[in-house]
Amino acid sequence: MSTKTVGEFTVTAVSDGVLYTTHDVVLGVDKDDSARLTGVPYGQQLVLDVNSFLIRRDGKLILSDAGSGHTMQPTLGKLPQNLRAIGADPSAIDIIMLTHLHGDHSLGLVDPQGRAVFPKAELFIHEVEAAFWLDRTLQPDDSERVTRNSKAQRAVTAPYRDRIRRIRDGEVLPGITAMLRPGHTPGHTNWLIESGGERLLIWGDIVHLAAVQLARPEARLIYDVDTDLAAATRAKVLDWAARERLTVAGAHIGFPGFGTVTRSGGNFAIEPA
Ligand SMILES: [Zn+2]
User: Fold this and answer.
1) Cα–Cα distance measured from residue 207 to residue 189, given in angstroms and rounded to the nearest whole number
2) C-alpha 266 to ligand 1 mean position (Å)
3) Are 178 and 167 contacting, i.e. CB atoms less than 8 angstroms apart?
4) Distance from the alpha carbon of residue 220 to the mean position of ligand 1, in angstroms
5) Which entry of 31, 145, 218, 270 is 20 to 30 Å from 212 by CA?
6) How far is the CA of 105 from the centre of ligand 1 (A)?
7) What angle do CA 270, 205, 193 make, to 5 degrees?
Protein backbone atom coordinates (compact mmCIF):
# COMPACT_ATOMS: atom_id res chain seq x y z
CA MET A 1 0.00 0.00 0.00
CA SER A 2 1.22 3.48 -0.74
CA THR A 3 -0.62 6.75 -0.37
CA LYS A 4 -0.47 10.11 -2.16
CA THR A 5 -2.04 13.33 -1.01
CA VAL A 6 -3.75 15.43 -3.68
CA GLY A 7 -4.95 18.60 -1.96
CA GLU A 8 -7.91 17.50 0.16
CA PHE A 9 -7.84 13.94 -1.21
CA THR A 10 -5.75 11.02 -0.11
CA VAL A 11 -5.35 8.28 -2.68
CA THR A 12 -4.05 4.85 -1.67
CA ALA A 13 -2.99 2.09 -4.04
CA VAL A 14 -4.59 -1.13 -2.81
CA SER A 15 -3.37 -4.36 -4.35
CA ASP A 16 -5.74 -7.02 -5.64
CA GLY A 17 -2.79 -9.36 -6.19
CA VAL A 18 -0.85 -10.32 -9.29
CA LEU A 19 -1.92 -11.65 -12.66
CA TYR A 20 0.20 -14.20 -14.52
CA THR A 21 0.33 -13.77 -18.25
CA THR A 22 2.62 -14.41 -21.22
CA HIS A 23 4.50 -12.50 -23.89
CA ASP A 24 1.88 -13.70 -26.37
CA VAL A 25 -0.67 -11.14 -25.14
CA VAL A 26 1.48 -8.38 -26.67
CA LEU A 27 0.93 -7.72 -30.36
CA GLY A 28 3.16 -5.81 -32.77
CA VAL A 29 6.39 -6.30 -30.84
CA ASP A 30 9.09 -8.74 -31.78
CA LYS A 31 9.39 -11.59 -29.25
CA ASP A 32 13.08 -10.91 -28.66
CA ASP A 33 12.32 -7.23 -28.17
CA SER A 34 9.57 -8.05 -25.67
CA ALA A 35 11.93 -10.36 -23.77
CA ARG A 36 14.69 -7.75 -23.72
CA LEU A 37 12.41 -4.92 -22.56
CA THR A 38 10.74 -6.95 -19.78
CA GLY A 39 13.87 -8.85 -18.77
CA VAL A 40 11.78 -12.02 -18.86
CA PRO A 41 12.80 -14.68 -21.41
CA TYR A 42 10.19 -15.54 -24.03
CA GLY A 43 8.25 -18.60 -22.86
CA GLN A 44 8.38 -17.60 -19.20
CA GLN A 45 5.41 -16.00 -17.46
CA LEU A 46 5.05 -12.27 -16.97
CA VAL A 47 3.69 -11.02 -13.66
CA LEU A 48 1.33 -8.06 -13.75
CA ASP A 49 0.30 -6.07 -10.68
CA VAL A 50 -3.42 -5.43 -10.32
CA ASN A 51 -4.22 -2.29 -8.28
CA SER A 52 -7.33 -0.49 -7.19
CA PHE A 53 -7.18 3.01 -5.72
CA LEU A 54 -9.00 4.13 -2.58
CA ILE A 55 -9.82 7.84 -2.62
CA ARG A 56 -10.75 9.52 0.65
CA ARG A 57 -12.17 12.97 1.18
CA ASP A 58 -14.39 14.30 3.95
CA GLY A 59 -14.99 10.80 5.29
CA LYS A 60 -16.28 9.59 1.91
CA LEU A 61 -14.73 6.38 0.56
CA ILE A 62 -14.44 6.11 -3.20
CA LEU A 63 -12.80 3.19 -4.96
CA SER A 64 -11.43 3.16 -8.51
CA ASP A 65 -11.99 -0.40 -9.77
CA ALA A 66 -13.28 -3.41 -7.90
CA GLY A 67 -10.60 -6.09 -8.33
CA SER A 68 -10.77 -9.52 -9.92
CA GLY A 69 -12.78 -11.57 -7.46
CA HIS A 70 -12.41 -15.31 -7.13
CA THR A 71 -12.76 -16.63 -10.66
CA MET A 72 -9.63 -15.48 -12.49
CA GLN A 73 -6.46 -16.69 -10.74
CA PRO A 74 -5.68 -17.77 -7.15
CA THR A 75 -3.14 -14.95 -6.85
CA LEU A 76 -5.93 -12.38 -7.39
CA GLY A 77 -9.03 -11.34 -5.43
CA LYS A 78 -7.09 -9.90 -2.49
CA LEU A 79 -8.73 -6.45 -2.62
CA PRO A 80 -11.36 -6.95 0.14
CA GLN A 81 -8.81 -8.19 2.67
CA ASN A 82 -6.34 -5.47 1.72
CA LEU A 83 -9.05 -2.81 2.10
CA ARG A 84 -9.91 -4.15 5.57
CA ALA A 85 -6.22 -4.05 6.49
CA ILE A 86 -6.21 -0.26 5.99
CA GLY A 87 -9.47 0.29 7.83
CA ALA A 88 -11.74 0.56 4.81
CA ASP A 89 -14.21 -2.28 5.07
CA PRO A 90 -15.87 -3.07 1.71
CA SER A 91 -19.25 -2.45 3.38
CA ALA A 92 -18.20 1.16 4.01
CA ILE A 93 -17.31 2.02 0.39
CA ASP A 94 -19.67 4.73 -0.89
CA ILE A 95 -18.82 4.83 -4.60
CA ILE A 96 -16.93 2.59 -7.04
CA MET A 97 -15.75 4.34 -10.18
CA LEU A 98 -14.98 1.71 -12.83
CA THR A 99 -12.32 2.65 -15.39
CA HIS A 100 -13.78 -0.13 -17.53
CA LEU A 101 -15.51 -3.45 -17.11
CA HIS A 102 -12.79 -6.02 -17.87
CA GLY A 103 -12.65 -8.86 -15.37
CA ASP A 104 -9.61 -7.72 -13.40
CA HIS A 105 -11.47 -4.47 -12.68
CA SER A 106 -15.04 -5.67 -12.19
CA LEU A 107 -15.39 -9.35 -11.25
CA GLY A 108 -14.54 -8.46 -7.65
CA LEU A 109 -17.92 -6.74 -7.37
CA VAL A 110 -19.42 -10.04 -6.22
CA ASP A 111 -18.48 -12.85 -3.86
CA PRO A 112 -18.51 -16.56 -4.86
CA GLN A 113 -22.25 -16.66 -4.06
CA GLY A 114 -22.90 -13.77 -6.44
CA ARG A 115 -23.70 -11.27 -3.69
CA ALA A 116 -22.50 -7.66 -3.70
CA VAL A 117 -19.11 -7.34 -1.97
CA PHE A 118 -19.76 -3.59 -1.62
CA PRO A 119 -23.34 -3.58 -0.31
CA LYS A 120 -23.90 0.18 -0.26
CA ALA A 121 -21.64 1.33 -3.10
CA GLU A 122 -23.00 3.22 -6.05
CA LEU A 123 -21.26 2.30 -9.35
CA PHE A 124 -20.03 5.00 -11.74
CA ILE A 125 -19.67 3.60 -15.26
CA HIS A 126 -19.16 5.73 -18.37
CA GLU A 127 -22.34 5.65 -20.45
CA VAL A 128 -20.32 4.49 -23.48
CA GLU A 129 -18.90 1.53 -21.50
CA ALA A 130 -22.32 0.60 -20.13
CA ALA A 131 -23.88 0.87 -23.59
CA PHE A 132 -21.32 -1.56 -25.07
CA TRP A 133 -21.08 -4.23 -22.35
CA LEU A 134 -24.33 -4.01 -20.40
CA ASP A 135 -27.13 -2.42 -22.41
CA ARG A 136 -26.60 -3.64 -25.97
CA THR A 137 -28.25 -6.66 -27.55
CA LEU A 138 -25.44 -9.18 -28.12
CA GLN A 139 -24.83 -9.81 -31.83
CA PRO A 140 -24.05 -13.12 -33.55
CA ASP A 141 -20.87 -11.62 -35.02
CA ASP A 142 -19.54 -10.40 -31.66
CA SER A 143 -16.21 -12.04 -30.87
CA GLU A 144 -16.15 -14.90 -28.39
CA ARG A 145 -14.18 -12.66 -25.99
CA VAL A 146 -16.73 -9.83 -26.17
CA THR A 147 -19.66 -12.20 -25.69
CA ARG A 148 -18.04 -13.94 -22.71
CA ASN A 149 -17.01 -10.64 -21.06
CA SER A 150 -20.46 -9.09 -21.60
CA LYS A 151 -22.19 -12.01 -19.92
CA ALA A 152 -19.81 -11.95 -16.95
CA GLN A 153 -20.15 -8.17 -16.56
CA ARG A 154 -23.95 -8.34 -16.66
CA ALA A 155 -23.85 -10.96 -13.90
CA VAL A 156 -21.48 -9.06 -11.57
CA THR A 157 -23.27 -5.73 -11.95
CA ALA A 158 -26.74 -7.27 -11.49
CA PRO A 159 -26.78 -6.89 -7.67
CA TYR A 160 -26.00 -3.18 -8.20
CA ARG A 161 -28.64 -2.62 -10.87
CA ASP A 162 -30.54 0.05 -8.92
CA ARG A 163 -27.41 2.01 -8.07
CA ILE A 164 -25.47 2.23 -11.32
CA ARG A 165 -24.86 5.77 -12.48
CA ARG A 166 -24.06 6.01 -16.19
CA ILE A 167 -21.74 9.01 -16.18
CA ARG A 168 -20.45 11.26 -18.97
CA ASP A 169 -17.24 13.20 -19.45
CA GLY A 170 -16.91 16.06 -16.98
CA GLU A 171 -16.91 16.51 -13.23
CA VAL A 172 -18.60 13.50 -11.62
CA LEU A 173 -17.81 14.48 -8.03
CA PRO A 174 -16.27 17.70 -6.70
CA GLY A 175 -12.62 17.55 -7.84
CA ILE A 176 -12.99 14.36 -9.90
CA THR A 177 -13.36 14.58 -13.68
CA ALA A 178 -14.19 11.67 -15.99
CA MET A 179 -12.34 11.56 -19.32
CA LEU A 180 -13.29 9.01 -21.98
CA ARG A 181 -10.08 7.34 -23.24
CA PRO A 182 -11.39 4.66 -25.59
CA GLY A 183 -9.75 1.74 -27.37
CA HIS A 184 -8.81 -0.78 -24.72
CA THR A 185 -12.58 -0.88 -24.27
CA PRO A 186 -15.10 1.43 -25.96
CA GLY A 187 -15.82 3.34 -22.75
CA HIS A 188 -12.44 3.08 -21.02
CA THR A 189 -12.30 6.07 -18.66
CA ASN A 190 -9.61 8.05 -16.84
CA TRP A 191 -10.29 9.97 -13.64
CA LEU A 192 -8.48 13.29 -13.11
CA ILE A 193 -8.34 14.25 -9.45
CA GLU A 194 -7.68 17.92 -8.74
CA SER A 195 -7.50 19.74 -5.42
CA GLY A 196 -5.44 22.55 -3.93
CA GLY A 197 -3.44 23.03 -7.12
CA GLU A 198 -2.41 19.36 -7.22
CA ARG A 199 -3.44 16.75 -9.79
CA LEU A 200 -3.39 12.99 -10.15
CA LEU A 201 -4.54 11.00 -13.17
CA ILE A 202 -5.97 7.55 -12.50
CA TRP A 203 -5.41 6.10 -15.95
CA GLY A 204 -6.75 2.55 -15.70
CA ASP A 205 -5.29 0.41 -18.46
CA ILE A 206 -3.61 3.06 -20.62
CA VAL A 207 -0.50 0.91 -20.05
CA HIS A 208 -0.49 -2.80 -19.08
CA LEU A 209 3.13 -3.78 -19.53
CA ALA A 210 4.98 -0.57 -18.78
CA ALA A 211 8.36 -2.04 -19.74
CA VAL A 212 7.10 -2.70 -23.26
CA GLN A 213 4.43 -0.09 -23.88
CA LEU A 214 6.37 2.96 -22.67
CA ALA A 215 9.17 2.10 -25.06
CA ARG A 216 6.72 1.00 -27.77
CA PRO A 217 3.40 2.84 -27.27
CA GLU A 218 2.25 1.23 -30.52
CA ALA A 219 2.37 -2.23 -28.88
CA ARG A 220 -1.16 -3.61 -28.63
CA LEU A 221 -2.69 -6.13 -26.31
CA ILE A 222 -4.93 -8.99 -27.34
CA TYR A 223 -7.39 -7.68 -24.73
CA ASP A 224 -7.87 -4.35 -26.55
CA VAL A 225 -11.34 -4.21 -28.10
CA ASP A 226 -10.02 -1.75 -30.73
CA THR A 227 -6.25 -2.13 -30.90
CA ASP A 228 -5.60 0.84 -33.22
CA LEU A 229 -7.69 3.20 -31.12
CA ALA A 230 -6.07 1.89 -27.91
CA ALA A 231 -2.60 2.65 -29.32
CA ALA A 232 -3.63 6.12 -30.48
CA THR A 233 -5.19 6.87 -27.10
CA ARG A 234 -2.10 5.60 -25.26
CA ALA A 235 0.18 7.85 -27.36
CA LYS A 236 -2.07 10.84 -26.71
CA VAL A 237 -2.31 10.28 -22.94
CA LEU A 238 1.43 9.58 -22.56
CA ASP A 239 2.24 12.72 -24.50
CA TRP A 240 -0.11 14.83 -22.36
CA ALA A 241 1.07 13.27 -19.08
CA ALA A 242 4.73 13.83 -19.97
CA ARG A 243 4.12 17.43 -21.06
CA GLU A 244 2.28 18.20 -17.82
CA ARG A 245 4.61 16.02 -15.70
CA LEU A 246 1.48 14.43 -14.30
CA THR A 247 1.52 11.91 -11.52
CA VAL A 248 -0.40 8.90 -12.73
CA ALA A 249 -1.97 5.98 -10.90
CA GLY A 250 -2.10 2.81 -12.98
CA ALA A 251 -4.08 -0.37 -12.47
CA HIS A 252 -1.04 -2.31 -13.70
CA ILE A 253 1.86 -0.10 -12.61
CA GLY A 254 4.08 -2.00 -10.20
CA PHE A 255 4.58 -0.91 -6.61
CA PRO A 256 4.01 1.84 -5.51
CA GLY A 257 1.29 2.05 -8.18
CA PHE A 258 2.04 5.73 -8.85
CA GLY A 259 4.59 7.42 -11.05
CA THR A 260 5.46 10.53 -13.00
CA VAL A 261 5.56 10.26 -16.76
CA THR A 262 8.65 11.65 -18.44
CA ARG A 263 9.89 11.64 -22.01
CA SER A 264 13.36 11.53 -23.41
CA GLY A 265 13.63 11.49 -27.16
CA GLY A 266 10.93 9.23 -28.54
CA ASN A 267 10.69 7.16 -25.37
CA PHE A 268 8.54 7.52 -22.30
CA ALA A 269 9.37 6.43 -18.78
CA ILE A 270 7.59 6.35 -15.46
CA GLU A 271 9.56 7.50 -12.45
CA PRO A 272 8.14 5.93 -9.31
CA ALA A 273 6.43 8.62 -7.27
ZN1 LIG B 1 -6.68 -4.41 -16.48
Assistant:
1) 13
2) 25
3) yes
4) 13
5) 145
6) 6
7) 75
What is the CATH classification number for the domain harbouring 120? Answer: 3.60.15.10
- Residue 225's nearest CA partner among 180, 187, 173 is 187
Report how far ligand 1's centroid is from the alpha carbon of 18 (Å).
11
* Cα–ligand 1 centroid distance for 50 (angstroms): 7
Could you tell me the distance, in angstroms and rounded to a whole number, from the CA of residue 252 to the centre of ligand 1? 7
Percent helix, strand, coil in the chain (nearest 5)?
30, 35, 35
Share of residues in the chain with pLDDT > 90 (%): 85
Domain holding 225, by residue range, is 2-272
CA gap 208, 220 in Å, rounded: 10
What is the tens place of the pLDDT at every residue in 166-209? 999 999 999 999 999 999 999 999 999 999 999 999 999 999 98
Q: Of 101-105, 236-240, 255-259, which range is least confident?
A: 255-259
